[in-house]
Amino acid sequence: MPGEGLLAQEDERSRNLEPETSEDEWRKSRARSLRRKALTASTRLTYSLKRRNKRVADYQFDSIFIEDVRDAKEEEAVNSFRMALLTRDLLPDSHDNYHTMLRFLKARKFDIDKTVQMWADMLHWRKEYGTDSILQDFIYEEYEEVQRYYPHGLHGVDKEGRPVYIERLGKVEPSKLMNVTTIDRFLRYHVQGFEKMFKEKFPACSIAAKRHIDKTTTIIDVHGVNWVSFSKVANDLVMRMQKIDGDNYPETLNQMFIVNAGSGFKLLWNTAKGFLDPRTTAKINVLGNKYQSRLLEVIDSCQLPDFLGGSCSCPNDGGCLRSNKGPWNDPDILKLLNTREATKPTKFGSSSVADRLDAESYARMVTHKLVTSTEISEPGSASEATLIPSTFMQSDPSNAKKRIRDRAPICNLVEPGNDANEVGDVDLPKTFLRKISFNALECNII
User: Fold this and answer.
1) Average pLDDT, stretch 43-54?
2) Which of 17, 38, 163, 439 fits 366 for a cystine, CB–CB 3.0-4.6 Å?
3) Beta partners for residue 218, in sequence order
4) By three-state DSSP, how is residue 260 classified?
């Protein structure tokens, strides 16, 4: 191959250096040649696969193929956004991720300047709030009491593998809730839930579904809601949660189902949706008391609690909303996640990657992935795009409906034992009382 000939010539020139040239200099020269070869091979394979329109794989997990469908225009926008962040020194390794950047771009309708400002504000908030360490630093000791006055939780996945989040809004008692916790502590619990979602829940669901997952399906049961009982304190909590979500965790909702909605609620919704972005209203389904068939279109019966028309009745204390049922409890998946954290690769997009990896091992690792994968050749994040441009590939999304139609129901998800001390394992109270504030709804779920 031409690349091999170039490498051989480079080696020969390196060996014929002046006698005083050290062995170390020869090794550095060879390392540069290996890097050039890796880049050339990557680029060549990228263009070849683009012509054939192959699917993308996520290489966060070497032993599993995780499909990642991407749109060419969105990829171009992410590339531009990423370069803008790099030039401003606003891209820490922990956030150098294709899908994270895409979510922020969508939140600002792909306006690069506005998205850069949103991103900078998010990084500042994380530093001030201590978000990066909140999983280790914060323990929500009052969780059990909070759950009594605000029933909520994750329960299983939908037919595409997304986590299902459920709230029984009609059973919320705002005044009693505020007697057992504070707004500040509840907000920290809320943020901790989001952090666990991105660190554990979404990756586990991606492994189980073998496709990228970063959104939830939400069900809000408003049966018995007393709108008059919502106090000023509760409304303040709602608005602060809305701001945190909209500013720092945008684009995390796939669909929302508001069930047991009465005629008054439907009238309010029909009025409010005229003021919202059509992309927002398209995600929200307001249903009456005959909602079961609609839910079963997107969620298998075994994944849906019996009080919502499904067949699941978790035996643990507190029922389905206390079960935390989902692939994030599967021992094999947990092992993969723990291994990923222990051996997380250096971000290829980092400017100092050559200083942190032995150059020859680095090139060998990249070329091995390129050579051994003729169908797919994609790292797990946009941070690797500078070395492996095949991160910007796409597949035909028309297969999605066929996958839903042909797949077997997901009915064997692991349910953990109920442990009242593991308060951190119950996640994402992301819609608490928020449905009463339709003017603020858009910032959370667009």
Assistant:
1) 41
2) 38
3) 165, 256
4) coil
Domains in the chain (CATH in brackets) are 1-12+25-129+347-399 (1.10.8.20), 143-236+249-330+413-445 (3.40.525.10)
The rounded distance, in Å, linking the Cα atoms of 338 and 63 is: 14
pLDDT tens-digit series, residues 332-355 = 999 988 887 655 543 433 333 333
Listed in sequence order, the residues at least 6 apart from 399 whose beta carbon sits closer than 8 Å to its beta carbon are none
Paired tokens of 395: 């597949």
Picking from 172, 174, 415, the residue whose alpha carbon sits closest to that of residue 317 is: 415
Distances (CA, A) of 405 to 160, 297, 402: 10, 10, 5
Nearest CA to 201 out of 162, 151, 168 is that of: 162
Two tokens, residue 156 = 């299983």
Q: What is the mean pLDDT of residues 58-75?
A: 77
**Could you tell me which of 295, 249, 269 has the C-alpha nearest to residue 446?**
249
Kindly state the greatest CA–CA separation across the chain: 90
What φ, ψ does residue 366 adopt, rounded to 5°? Answer: -70, -50
Paired tokens of 284: 């929200």
